[in-house]
Structure formats: structure tokens, C-alpha cells
Specification:
Organism: Rhodocollybia butyracea
Pfam family, one: 2OG-FeII_Oxy_2
Number of domains: 5
CATH topology of the largest domain: Jelly Rolls
Number of strands: 40
Structural class: mainly beta
Number of helices: 6
Oligomer: single chain
GO molecular function: broad specificity oxidative DNA demethylase activity; cytosine C-5 DNA demethylase activity; ferrous iron binding
Radius of gyration: 29 Å
CATH superfamily of the largest domain: Alpha-ketoglutarate-dependent dioxygenase AlkB-like
Protein name: Alpha-ketoglutarate-dependent dioxygenase AlkB-like domain-containing protein
InterPro entries: AlkB-like (IPR027450), AlkB-like_sf (IPR037151), ALKBH2 (IPR032852)
CATH architecture of the largest domain: Sandwich
Length: about 725
């Protein structure tokens, strides 16, 4: 049989329509016609990606109903891995743990919290490994997924698109000291298990995840049984070192979920109550926050910034940290019967390929050569030794790894405080297995089946929050050097309960002003305290619908929700939620109306001018949540934006916009916002030339008032 296949097809976008992709490839410019014969012999029903043998007509270890197709490479004379063009099989059962977005995985599954990259590690220990996309040479899905071979560590040749231009990023050598490779090797040497995940683009998984609206699925717990280095030839003709790992299914879990039939019972979806909660977040140096995925938001005037502080949590808010307690040194491991030591470097390497043994220690001069064949290099076309891809006995799985199902959230804590970091995490639905972000203030809710876990907590008092330390040495503000910003002297206004003081910052070149309006410390704050509590009460009973809304644009798969909860009143604010997040003033909760009135009152008193606001965005930040750098550049936005701060202190940072690098990119002004303060950005130039972010110290609510032209287009 013959197929015409475009060499530039790459990954087939619609994994369920691969046969149609073949039919549509009718003699495009870069096409090779490859004549294939049904491969013989067959060994089992494993689905693998393996090189065709030298004849180009034989491929072992493929299922009887699969026809392998080899796509020749247009960049050089080497052969790509064969593409499996048969339609994917229907998924027999739903995964025990699955998600539709990367964020759902990172916020709900402690074993994988990497918003970018496929290796998630903490303290040099890999916790999770994501299999995605089209495999590299000799990657394999053996023993129906009980043995998986994959390349790890990045640095592969790839196409990158920046500002509409696609460029080839050349590959580079992987090294044992690379962070992700080092962590994987650490798991291998110390026999520490890890969790494998796949997405619907992983070409070797034989079932159709996308048809069931599954983007990510957790396979289970695996051990790394072998690790070695290879020399790989890229499409551009370069040769680079790549590390390979074999992942073997841990049998203590029972059969993999994808092996089960529709009527076979799955393992119970329960969490063994008291296991694993003694670990804390404090050693998790890979914790991911909004600042970590800030650079994924597509914006011409944003780039990644380092976090402003390390994230820690008290033990009572901690969750299970899957780190193996018992360790085994590499020297304690029993080498395989076919392992040999290199005559030059003395390092042992396994017998991996059927062609013969060679040193697989990359720094060695004899690396990637076959001593029994006169020291010639390994060819590009290789097959694995049959014994190498067999399952082998391994150390029994530690009890702490036998159940990786996320624990159910604590909905009614003993101290009744439900605004700490643990309550920002997602949930795993015990009914359908879906991972979901917490996107509603008053409850956890499964985004698939709608199962609800209601939250029961107390109303936080301002008195317990407003005295929290900001962690900075200055009291009110910090002005950077050589910014051109002028700090005006503080001025007082009003009398009695309305008394306060204002400090104004003049931006250079007439770009606008920033006003910091503060309450006098001696003035009564009962009104503000009551407003803070009213906000919380209306958010808890649903009168005020606080939600986390999807960002407008980003680079992650699935939706990416904001790192705070919000609700909008008046004119729609398209930056956050648009019309879906907006209620009219007739429907507005009383807390929002009171916040708008207070902002108008304070700005009138301090600035001696009347301001008209027709929109208020209310935002609630739990512990460790924050709003990343942005600019209020909504179409039709008026010249003045004013925000009221309630609850814990917060740091508001300003930096120049449209400057990507250099000293001018640094924060030029930081203002400490305290309970009852109002911050006013006065002038269109503030949004045009600067961007800002807010970093609360703890639980905080903010109300930001604007005027937006109702007739904008």
C-alpha cells in the first residue's frame, strides 16, 4: 500500500481525524511516497514508536490492526519515527484524575505544578512528568503503557513564534547537571517514584482523550528503572546528547485504569484520611503563583517578573508533599545481567539496543560507540533489545505513594478562617474525577458535573488584618532613583471623622498624577470596618457573585483564571469578565454602592473636584493571591481611576510601560495601601506610560471606580 504524506504535517491537530488528514494530503510541495508492507513479525499488542528497520519495510512491536507509516525528513536523510495514522480507539473508561486546563492540574494536583515545561521537581526530586506531543526517536509506549520510554529535560529543537515570526530554535546538549535531568536522575538513583501525566496530544497513547473533552489525564505512579544518554540527530542535521528514561508502572496500584473495561469496577475514589498531612509547603521551592505564569499572558507591554517574596504556609494549611522517605544509593542497586563497564571511563551502562552494547556515559570519549563492532558509532536506526523492554521486579511501592488522589478540601476548618492559601486551591471531584479550580467564592464546584462543596467560615475583622506587617522598611512609599517622579509634601484635608491627608506624586513630562489619600489615624473607621464585613457577608451568601474569570489571552492550554475573585457593577469592564461579570446599578449589592459613594466622597474632599464614576470592579484576594502588572487601558476609559483598599495592607507597585529591559523597567514607585486608603491615578498618561500591580499581605478586598464611555465601540 502507498500513502502520500506531507513532511510538514507534524502533530495532527485533530487526533480523532488522522485518517482524514492522510486523505487530504494530496501531493503538497513537500511529499514523500513511502511504500509499506504489513510488518512481520508481531510481538504482542504494544503500541510503540520505533524505527523502521533498514529495509524500510519492517517494524516490530505494533498492534495487529495498526499500519505504521514512515514520514521521511526533508531536512536530511534521516528517518523520522513512524506516525500511527489509524483512528484512535474509544476511551473505555474515564480517568481517575483528569482536567481540561493546565491551571486545573497545577492548582488541584500536588504532584504536578509546572505551568511551563514537562518536568515538575521540588528540592531536586521529580514529582510529576508530563508526556505530550509527538515523541522523539525511540520513545515508546510498551506493555500497554506499563513501560514507557521518554526523553526528558528540554533543549530540543523546536519552532518558536514571536510577534508573528516563526524561527527555528536550535537544539542543545542535555547535561546531567541540568535541573530537570538532575532531578530525574535523582529519582532513578534513589528509587523515588513519580507520577506520569499525559495530554491529548501525546501521540503514543492509543485512546482518544479529546473526544471525551479530556485535555490532561493522570496515568499513575511509576518508577524509573533505567536512565541513559543517547546521541540524537536533529532535523537540522546537528547531533546532540539526549537523556532517556524508562518508566515502569508500580504494580501495587493494581491494573492501569485504561486497561479496565466499561463494566469493570475502578479503584475507589477515596483518600486515606490521615496519610501525608504532616508535610508542609515550606520546602516546595517550585510553588507556582500568578507571577510564575504572568509571562504567559499575551500582551505587548508585559513580561515575566520575579516574585516579590517566597510563598510559605503554616502547617495547618499544608497538603501532602509526595517525597519518598527511604532512599537507595546507586551503588546499592543490582546491575542487570547485560550491564557492562566502559573500558575507558569505568561507568556501567545497560545493554539497551539489539545491535550491541556501548558506553552511554555522555562525557566519555567512547560515548555512543560499539566496542564489539570496532568502536563504530551507533547508527541512527536502532531497535530495543527484547529483554530491555520487559517488566522487571522492583522495590515495593511505599504506602505513601499508593493513593495519589487529591484530598478533599476542608470546608469547615476548626478556626473558621477560610481565606488562607489552602482555600485558593482546586478540588478533585469524587464523582467524576475532574480537577477544577476554585472559581466561586462561596464554594468549590466541579466544572464537569456540578458537584458542590460549600464553604463555611467566619467574617474576618479589619482589626486582625490591618496591623499585619508589610515586610518593607518604609512606612508609606518608596520612590526609585532617577525616575523623574516628584513627591509633593503631604497635605491635610477635612475635619473630625472625615479628616485625612493626601500625598501626590507628579509623573514626568506631564504624564499625570498619583494621589494617595489616607485616613487620619485618630479618625473613626467604623464605617470602613462595617463595609469590609458587609462585602464578606454578601459574598458568602451569593448576593455579591465573586468569581475568578478567564484572562483574555494567554499561552496555556484551556482557560487561565485570574488570581483573584471579582465582580463588576455598572458599565461592563471587558478586561475582567466583560458583560458576564457585570450587573446593573439597579442590581448592585449594597456593599458596592457604599464603596462607590465612599470613593466619591473621599476624592471630592481631598482633590476638591467632583468625579463621576459609572463602573466599580470589586476584587477579593485570599492569602497569597495578587494582581500582576497590568494597565487599565479599557476602551472609553476616563482619565481618573480610583481604588479603595479594605483589609490587610498591600503594596502597589508602578513601573514604566513598553520598556522591556534595563533600569527603567524596574519598579519606580511603591505605595503602601492600608485599610480605608484610596489611591487615585489621575490623567490618561498614567495608563499610557505606566503599569501597576497590587500585592496584598493577606486577605484583602478592593473596589476600583472608573468612568467608562457607554457609547464606546
Amino acid at each position: 500500500m502507498e500513502y502520500n504524506i506531507s513532511e510538514t504535517m507534524g502533530i495532527i491537530p485533530d487526533t480523532g481525524s488522522s485518517k482524514r488528514a492522510l486523505d487530504d494530503a494530496s501531493n503538497p510541495p513537500h511529499v514523500k511516497v513511502v511504500k509499506l508492507t504489513r510488518p512481520e513479525p508481531f510481538h504482542g499488542s504494544s503500541l510503540v514508536v520505533q524505527e523502521l528497520q533498514a529495509s524500510g519495510n519492517i517494524c516490530t512491536n505494533v498492534p495487529m490492526d495498526t499500519v505504521p507509516v514512515k514520514v521521511e525528513n526533508s531536512y536530511n536523510n534521516n528517518n523520522n519515527n513512524p506516525l500511527w495514522m489509524e483512528p484512535l480507539q474509544e476511551l473505555p473508561v474515564m480517568p481517575l484524575i483528569w482536567a481540561q486546563s493546565r491551571q486545573e492540574v497545577c492548582e488541584s494536583f500536588d504532584w504536578f505544578r509546572s505551568y511551563q515545561g514537562g518536568v515538575y521537581f521540588v528540592n531536586n526530586v521529580t514529582k510529576g512528568y508530563l508526556l505530550s506531543g509527538f515523541p522523539a526517536k525511540r520513545d515508546g509506549f510498551f506493555q500497554q503503557g506499563k513501560l514507557i520510554i521518554s526523553h526528558g529535560g528540554g533543549k530540543a529543537e523546536s519552532l518558536q513564534t514571536l510577534k508573528g515570526q516563526t524561527k527555528l530554535r536550535l537544539a542543545d546538549d542535555q547535561k546531567a547537571e541540568d535541573k530537570s535531568v538532575r532531578s530525574l536522575l535523582n529519582n532513578y538513583r534513589k528509587r523515588i517514584p513519580l507520577v506520569l501525566l499525559i495530554d491529548d496530544r501525546y501521540a503514543l497513547f492509543p485512546y482518544n482523550l479529546a473526544k471525551r473533552n479530556i485535555t490532561y489525564a493522570v496515568l499513575g505512579v511509576y518508577n524509573i528503572t533505567h536512565a541513559w544518554a543517547e546521541r540524537e540527530t536533529t532535523k537540522s542535521g546537528q547531533q546532540h546528547v539526549r537523556f532517556k528514561f524508562t518508566f515502569q508502572w508500580c504494580e501495587e496500584q493494581g491494573q492501569p485504569w485504561w486497561h479496565l473495561g466499561k463494566n469493570e469496577p475502578k479503584p475507589p475514589v477515596v483518600f486515606p484520611g490521615n496519610q501525608g498531612f504532616h508535610e508542609s509547603f515550606e520546602n516546595d521551592n517550585a510553588r507556582t503563583t500568578e507571577s510564575d505564569y504572568e509571562d504567559m499572558v499575551i500582551s505587548e507591554d508585559e513580561e515575566a517578573i520575579p516574585p516579590f517574596g517566597e510563598i510559605t504556609a503554616t502547617p495547618k494549611t499544608s497538603r501532602r508533599l509526595p517525597v519518598k522517605k527511604s532512599e537507595f544509593l546507586l551503588s546499592e542497586r543490582t546491575p542487570g545481567l547485560a550491564d557492562r563497564s566502559c573500558s575507558h571511563c569505568g561507568m556501567r551502562s545497560p545493554l539497551v539496543f539489539s545491535i550491541g552494547w556501548g558506553c552511554l556515559n555522555a562525557p566519555c570519549p567512547l560515548f555512543w560507540t560499539i566496542p564489539d563492532a570496532g568502536g563504530v558509532s551507533f547508527p541512527d536506526e536502532l531497535t530495543y533489545l527484547e529483554d530491555f523492554i520487559k517488566l522487571r521486579p522492583f522495590t515495593p511501592l511505599d504506602v505513601g505513594f499508593r493513593n495519589i488522589l487529591p484530598p478533599q478540601p476542608v470546608t469547615n476548618p476548626s478556626d473558621k478562617i477560610t481565606t488562607v492559601q489552602a482555600f485558593t486551591r482546586g478540588m478533585h471531584c469524587v464523582k467524576c474525577g475532574r480537577l477544577s479550580c476554585r472559581f466561586k467564592w462561596q464554594q468549590w464546584e466541579c466544572a464537569n458535573c456540578g458537584d458542590v462543596l460549600a464553604v463555611s467560615g467566619i467574617v474576618r475583622r479589619a482589626a486582625e488584618l490591618k496591623s499585619i506587617s508589610t515586610g518593607v522598611v518604609f512606612q508609606c512609599n518608596l520612590l526609585g532613583k532617577d525616575t523623574g517622579i516628584i513627591r509633593r509634601p503631604t497635605e491635610s484635608f477635612g475635619s473630625g471623622g472625615s479628616a485625612g491627608h493626601i500625598q501626590t506624586f507628579l509623573l514626568p513630562e506631564g504624564r499625570g498624577r498619583i494621589h494617595h489619600i489616607q485616613h487620619n489615624s485618630s479618625g473613626p473607621l467604623e464605617r470602613i470596618d462595617a463595609l469590609f464585613e458587609e462585602y464578606q457577608g454578601q459574598a458568602s451568601d451569593g448576593t455579591l457573585q465573586f468569581r475568578r474569570w478567564p484572562l483574555r489571552s494567554h499561552k496555556l492550554r484551556g482557560s487561565l483564571l485570574t488570581n483573584y475573585f471579582s465582580q463588576n457593577c455598572g458599565e461592563p469592564y471587558h478586561y475582567v469578565g466583560g458583560t458576564a461579570n457585570t450587573v446593573t446599578w439597579e442590581q448592585a449589592p449594597s456593599a458596592v454602592i457604599k464603596a462607590r459613594d465612599f470613593i466619591k466622597e473621599r476624592t471630592t474632599q481631598a482633590l476638591q473636584k467632583h468625579l463621576n464614576f459609572n463602573e466599580v470592579l470589586s476584587a477579593a484576594y485570599m492569602e497569597k493571591q495578587k494582581m500582576s502588572f497590568h494597565t487599565d487601558d479599557e476602551k472609553g476609559l476616563g482619565d481618573v481611576v480610583a481604588g479603595l483598599s479594605l483589609g490587610s495592607p498591600a503594596l502597589m507597585h508602578f513601573r514604566r510601560r513598553n520598556i522591556k529591559h534595563g533600569p527603567e523597567r524596574k519598579t519606580c514607585l511603591t505605595v503602601v495601601l492600608r485599610h480605608g486608603d484610596v489611591l487615585v491615578m489621575d490623567g490618561a498618561g498614567v495608563q499610557q506610560h505606566y503599569e501597576h500591580m497590587v500585592e496584598p499581605t493577606n486577605f484583602r478586598i478592593a473596589a476600583t471606580a472608573r468612568y467608562i464611555d457607554p457609547n464606546r465601540k
